[in-house]
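Entry for the shared binder. Reason: the reviewer on the internal report wants the predicted structure included alongside the sequence.
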Amino acid sequence: SDVAKEKEIKEKYDLLGDQLFKKVGFSSELKNLSVYINPSLSSMGEGVDFVDLDKYMDKNNREYLLLTDKGKKVVYKIPLEETPAVEVISDEKKLVQVPQYVAVGERGIFVYDKEAGVLKAPIAEDGTLGSFISLPGILGRDIPDDTIEDMIVLTSNDNVYLLSSTQKAVLRSTAVYGDRYSMLNKYIENPLFEGAKDIHGDFSTYIFVKSEEGILRYIWSSVEQKQVPSDMGITGLSGSVGKITKAYTYADSMDSGLYMFDSEGKRFLRFEKPQESSADLRHPNQLLLLKQYEYRGGDSNEFSNVKDLVVDYKEENMYVLDGNTVW
C-alpha cells in the first residue's frame, strides 16, 4: 500500500540522515536506554532531591557514581555494577546541609555545599573514603552569595574552582597547607559566563555556556602567567550546538571523548578532542564530532531536566542524571 511505501521511504531517509549526521537514536523502546537508579525503587525512599553526579575510580580500578542529594542532605557512592548498591559517604560531624556539586580530586571527594562551603571526604591510602571535613578558607562564609553553577577540582594540588554566573568568573582557591585553602580569587573572567552552565578541565579549562558558542576554552599562558582564551571550533556538526547545559570529559587524557548535552535538541554530542602538543597533531583547535545520540522516546518528561552526565572509563556507557532518575 501507499502508506507502507511511504513508511519505507521515510525509514530509508531517516537512516540516510542518521549516517550522514552521525546520529544514533536512543530510547527504552530501542533497548539502548534503561533506568539505572530510580529512588522510589531503591533503598533511598522518599524525599530525595538529586543535584549533581560525578564518577570516582579507586586504586583497584573499580568505578563508582557519586550523587549529591539535597533532599536527604547526603552524598551517595554507588559502585558501577548491574545492580547498584547505594552507600552514603560518612558525615560524622553532620557538615552536609545543602549539598550541590561533587568533584573528585587526587586526595579526596569534594562537595560544594550552599551552606557549609566546600567539604572533603579524604581518600585514604587503601582507597577508602573518610568522613567529610570542612576546609578553612573555603567555608560557607568565605564563599560569596553568588549563583555557583558548578565546581571542579584540578591539579595534583587539589585546587578548587567555582563557576560563578553572578560574577561572570571562575573563582579559584588553592590548597595552601594541608586542608587549609587560600581566599577565593577571580581566575578567569568573561561576560559570556553569565550564561555559563558547566566547567571541565584537562590540559585546558573548558567553560560550557548556553549561548551559541557552546564551549569556551582557556589555556595557561606562561608569558602572561594566567589563563588566556584559546579558540576552539567544532567540525563535522551541521547546524549549531543548540543549548549546551552540561558536559563531561576525562581530565587526564586527550584521547577520551568530550561530551555535551544540548537541552534544545535532547541530544548528547560526542567529540574527539584535538591533539596540539605532541608529534601526532590531530585537528588542532577543533573538536571533531564523532556521534550524536538523540532522544527518541515518547515521554516528553524524559531528558527535560538533565542535571549532569558522566561516562564510564571504557566509554561504553553514559550515566545521566535527569530529574531524580539516573539513566
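Summary line for the report: The chain has a mean pLDDT of 90.
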